[in-house]
Amino acid sequence: MPTDAKPAIEAARRILAAVRAIPRGEVAGYGEVARRAGLPGRARMVARLLSHNEDPRLPWHRVLRSDGRIAFPEDSPGYIEQCARLRSEGVRVEGGRVRGKRAAATLDEQVWG
DNA sequence: CGCCTGACCACGT
DNA sequence: CACGTGGCCAGGC
Question: Mind listing the pLDDT tens digit for each residue in A33-43?
Answer without folding.
Answer: 999 999 999 99
